[in-house]
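Tokens as discussed.
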């Protein structure tokens, strides 16, 4: 199954990693005929006129009902946090309907629950639906203190492009837990930056590496800087080169800025 986002631009997909709050909309856009899109959240109420507490009360009631009502409830908790939803969300991770699983995964990213970690890791590794794995790759970024680093690295190495995209973004969160995690995450992100065939994945690797830069030791920082400069020189995709230039600017390293300027003056950079 090819899960690469077809119509979204590279810049849009890169920005998604920076603003994970739009995952629900991005997933819905990619799922043709997504049942969540076909369902009006309410038939007798306008949720825009309700406060968050009232929305959550409705969501809790819907989660206790049948399939279509559960989908309405899941949409509520993809937007809002309420610990009362957790015992209702966890069983939905094992529903046969992939849209329910996907939505429950996202809701549990919005509402992290330690009891969900083991199931989420299993979904990332084994779920047959790439949209579910993709949502799981994002959600696990909100479980950075759990043992998510190696599963995310494995997904970045081996899964389809859209799952790799979100795994690379979540590695910035998992890597930020410690210097050891940061080094392991950076190592794989640097490898993927060199070899991944999808420009949006390479761009996201750059973004995550920039987030991890301050936690890396001097040798790894130099490797990261050289990798960004190499992207400027040799990557064939303009959007990836642009991401590298922005990342280099954000490092605020005068020597590095001078190096890039010299390369521009010599006509080595476009």
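Sequence:
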């Amino acid at each position: 199954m090819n899960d690469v986002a077809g119509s979204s631009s590279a810049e849009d997909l890169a920005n998604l990693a920076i603003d994970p709050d739009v995952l629900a909309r991005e997933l819905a856009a990619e799922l043709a005929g997504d049942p969540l899109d076909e369902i009006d959240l309410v038939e007798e109420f306008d949720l825009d006129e309700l406060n968050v507490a009232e929305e959550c009360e409705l969501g809790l009631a819907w989660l206790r009902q049948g399939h279509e009502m559960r989908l309405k409830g899941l949409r509520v908790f993809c937007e809002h946090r309420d610990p009362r939803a957790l015992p209702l969300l966890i069983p939905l991770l094992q529903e046969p309907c992939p849209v329910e699983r996907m939505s429950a995964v996202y809701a549990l990213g919005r509402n992290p629950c330690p009891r969900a970690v083991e199931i989420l890791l299993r979904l990332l590794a084994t779920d047959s639906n790439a949209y579910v794995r993709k949502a799981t790759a994002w959600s696990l970024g909100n479980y950075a203190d759990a043992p998510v680093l190696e599963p995310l690295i494995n997904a970045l190495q081996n899964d389809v492009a859209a799952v790799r995209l979100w795994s690379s973004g979540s590695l910035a969160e998992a890597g930020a837990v410690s210097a050891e995690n940061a080094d392991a995450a950076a190592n794989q992100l640097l490898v993927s930056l060199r070899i991944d065939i999808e420009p949006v994945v390479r761009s996201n690797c750059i973004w995550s590496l920039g987030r991890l830069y301050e936690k890396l030791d001097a040798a790894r920082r130099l490797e990261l800087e050289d990798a960004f400069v190499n992207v400027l020189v040799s990557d064939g995709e303009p959007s990836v080169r642009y991401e590298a230039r922005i990342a280099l600017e954000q490092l605020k390293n005068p020597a590095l800025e001078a190096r890039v300027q010299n390369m521009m003056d010599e006509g080595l950079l476009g």
